[in-house]
Fold this protein.
Amino acid sequence: MFGGKATTYRLFILSALTFCNLSAQVTVRQNIDIRQGICDSSIIVSTAPQLPSNQVERMFDGNPGTFAHLSNVDSLQVTLRVDSSLQFVEAKVFFGNQGNWSLETANSLYDLTFKTGSYQLLVNARTCLFLVADSAVFSEQQAKFIRMTVRNSQSHTINVGEWGLRSNITFTSLYMLPNPPRLLPNTSLKLRVKLVGQDNRLYPYNLPAPLQWQSADHSIAMVDSSGRVHGIAVGTTEITVSARGIPLTGHAPVSVETDFQSVNASPKTSRVVLVLQDPLTGNGQRLHQRFGWINPLDLVPDIVAEFDSISEGVAHFEIVDTIDTNLLFTRYYGAFLTVDSLVAYFSVPGWPKLVRAHQNGQLAFDYLELINYFQLCTRRDNGEIDEIWVYGYPYCGLYESILAGQNAFWWNAPPLA
């Protein structure tokens, strides 16, 4: 299923929060979550030669054993771009090939390309060894463009297991979630803790110091060593969390109530274009009929009803148009699949050609071609539709969801801008 949006809006949830204990500070060196930045579009990544998105993810998934692999090439450039400067003090790499690697930064693509102005060469053709981690440390850097280049002129293969950047982050306090905690008498609620950065953002709590918990009034609520708060009697008190041996604390008012109910958001109806990749085959049957699959038209009302039910009437979807086409938008080794070839592939037990193409990264759904062919972004911009749902066949190359348009961000898939 594919949710397409020509215009999207980014939400900044933390802007209205106020944190306490600003006088205490702890500075630690942490990995910059490049993968999350790619997901929320605060970091844009490009490669030369171009890599499929699943290969790009392997460089930033935190697992050096998953390699982005290229054959018959001597080098790979990976460039990160951010709207505001990215601060870092260390670069870490892990390669499955010998050769050398370099690291360059700049505040504009022009400077990076022509090595002028803000350009800096931080690492210059440093030797990399097969399956040996390496890192380079420097004074704090700030840049909008960061490029890592790895070269291997001997075996003509590139294998990047990991490229990471690390920064010094100053934390000022701890923050409890949910906040404020609310619960009923004789019930309990597990609290989670985040680190509050000097930049007023929340970070995962991954310090080695164990957390300590305290309730101001045990007759109202108690909290155990795991952070689970227990409602004792109706009233309010305060929960405090601290990190042992580190000057960081957090506070939250806890309310034990006889009853409360969460307030739903206002109902919203999203107008959907349904695209069916269920072509007529040579024997006159639809693809789903020929291979004994469920009719996608039978699934649509069920999923609409399911969304309505689980959201308690908040999320409602209306199918305003159905595009039923024999055109296939799956690229197989670069070319669009035909109906006849697709039937031939599915007719072989185990579908080996489709499986092999998928494993080799040679199956992909061409979202941009679909959008442009049916002018879907134009319809979105004109206010006619909100989303696009695509029902496809096995190995058609679809993500679970993807966003498109200006300010689109990662939503289970890289955005289409």
About this structure: Residues 268-391 form one domain. Residues 195 and 203 are 5 Å apart (CA to CA).
